[in-house]
User: What shape does this take?
Amino acid sequence: MNNPKINIEKLTAFKNPFETPKDWVTPTGKVIKHKPFKKYLRSDIPGIFNAQGINDPYLEDRKIVAQVFPFKINQFTIDQINWKNYLEDPIFKLTFPQPEMLSREEIDGIKQLKESGASRETIAEHISDIRSAKNPAPANQAANRPVFEENDDADISAIDGLQHKYPKIVLMFHKNAQTCHAYCTYCFRFNQFVGKDKFLEDDSVRLHRYLKEHPEVTDLLMTGGDPATMKSDVWRDVLEPLLQPEFDHIKNIRIGTKALTYHPYRFLTEPDADDLISLFKQMKEGGKHIAVMAHFSHWQELNPITLEAARRLREEAGAVIRTQAPLMKGINDSAEVWAKMWQIQVQNGLIPYYMFIARDTGAQEYFEVTLDHALDVYSKARQLMSGLAHTARGPSMSCGPGKVCILGQENVAGEEVFVCKFLQARNPEWCKRVFFAKHDPKATWLDQLVPAFGEKEFFFEQEYNDIVNKKKTYAKELYQVS
Ligand code: SF4
Assistant: This one.
């Protein structure tokens, strides 16, 4: 007899019936064995060191730092670390909490609270205060949340899981993409992983409605967390409808991901890897450009499995992989590291795209380098490369008004200046101009720069403030936030 509680139709319509992972065979016949995704969280940190036979002198501090900044790693990523020299290893610094990510006072403050027997709530509140002091939502992200043109339904007029900062690009933060396969120590979205400031979409309904209303949008950027953590049926829900004629204006699907570093098996041996690749191929054949915006911080991440996953994305799915990363002290603040990384990328068909400057959030003070140094690293790395790697733009700051590139340093009319230019801007007209900031050898971010030649403000400041204030007022009404 049929069980009335089970909806057989729904069950059979499920697009990804469970399949076991398969090993992957490369075109040259090499077999890549599937490595199940095994994650480790904060409480596993001592065990990871134990497993390596290491008595880490900074373990207690690391455990404290991991209470403030999220920690997650997986076995594949652990295996990419050179444990013989782990304190200097870039992937270790990229993923494991570093004591200097907090000040001595912050670490000792948390320790003292714990030793004094403070309640969990008190400690959690203290930790939350520390996070809040670290600019957890940089670049006025909340003010990028778009709204529907016609607010015929008050409940859905505010779209908090989308961002529309530049006219041509809409970002989607899907509910199922609110994690990564491992977390970067410098993550600028750290607050999303500790239960705050979530920008979420449950499904694709509001996205599709918004895109229909905005024919000026050409690019959809799937972001997160990491959207590669989503199953392929979720991807289908988002992407397949974009093949309909009403979405002809959507030309480019961008996928912001670090899965090629943290879990390349996602594109090779995971049960739904074939389905995901075939979906991307279907989109490509339907006229959409699939642009994988791959986050690589160091050449050490470009291991054979990662490169094979990249090859599959390019050759089977027809995707173009563009690479980007921030310049971070202790991880990749040398021209040689960038040049070697770009060289391997170019050789393997990946296109260097951006060198970013450490954002003004999280443990920025630990990772930041001066704009002077960033310009130096970028220029020297370019010099070490042929023109094929000169596709990387930078050093660039993703800040509230837009992406500001430091083009160079110059002496103009007797004054030492940084020559700056928008690569993207709230108002695209700003991109036509260069502007000049007083040279400051200590500056690490746009807000530390002052206009050159005695100007009171940069040319875009008034208009930018007006845009933000207008959006904030509107958001205040919709979200009833202060
Ligand atoms: S991959 Fe991106 S979103 Fe994920 S932890 Fe790293 S920086 Fe953050």
Notes: Residues 34-131 form one domain. The chain has 16 helices and 15 strands. Residues 1-6, 10-14, 150-156 have pLDDT under 50 and may be disordered.
